[in-house]
Amino acid sequence: MKKILVFLMILFVLPAALFAEGQGETGSNPVAAAAQSYFADYPGSRIVPASKVFEEIDANADILIVDIRSAEDYAKGHLKGAVNAAWGSPALAETLNWLPDDKPVYISCYSGQTAGQATAVLNIAGFQVSSIKYGWNRGITNTEGFESYVETAANKTPASSGVTVVPAVKTAAMDYFNNIKTDAETPSNIIPAATLKEKMDAEDPLVIVSVRTPEDFAKGHISGAINIPFGENMQASFDKIPQGKKVIVYCYSGQTAGQTVGVLRMMGYDAASLNSGTGTGATAARGWINEGLPVVK
């Protein structure tokens, strides 16, 4: 009789569990649960202006800056005290072994977009990470007095921190960094505006998600996009996003879309962000609207 009951439980419970996992539900999946908590316990944008980082450097605050630009660009100049763990290199995955969990960590990239992905993945793993707004090219070097906060001497990465990360989450985070897609269409999980327009014209099966505010979505959005505004508890609307299709996320400049992509990919979605979003003054000629591409109301 017990064997029959066990068989019936497997027959009915297992398919339901597999279905839930395939839909990105947390279930017993610790990675999905950790990813969903990113927005459920959201303290704010997790994007800080360079001026705030400068203030903390002046105050000798106990912080850590991780520069994820290439080793070559890091060597040309980086923020004082910053260590290098280049995007797309094994060094970035290794941060899971030495990042501290008891101090703020600031991520610097070129534009803030890949730093957004890194910020999401590392917070999911349990670290206190924020990205530096607009990165090196658009943020740091455009902030008054930045030259005083730049050095060229390399800094050693910290020793092993001894921080315990949930094993499944650590594996997923390291896999994320070690297997960043570099295909022609979505290098670094980012798609150029012109490429997205070509795919739309070819009627490729895509799901386009705008994480801008409802007000800005109403003023004009990419045709066919759904609106899931960025911020606290946005994960509650992820059930609007079907599995099995390429998901393109866009915001204003690519930074919050980068965070959203990090979360979605940790949940199993094939997601990429639109390069520079719709575009802002800081993104110059890049971005969907800045490049003159159409929107609908």
Automatic annotation (TrEMBL):
Occurrences of domain Rhodanese (ranges): 59-148, 202-297
Domain of life the protein comes from: Bacteria
Keywords: Signal
The UniProt record lists the keyword Signal: yes
InterPro entries for the chain: GlpE_sulfurtransferase, Rhodanese-like_dom, Rhodanese-like_dom_sf
Gene3D superfamilies: Rhodanese-like domain
Signal peptide location: 1-20
UniProt name for this protein: Rhodanese-like domain-containing protein
Organism, as annotated: Oceanispirochaeta crateris
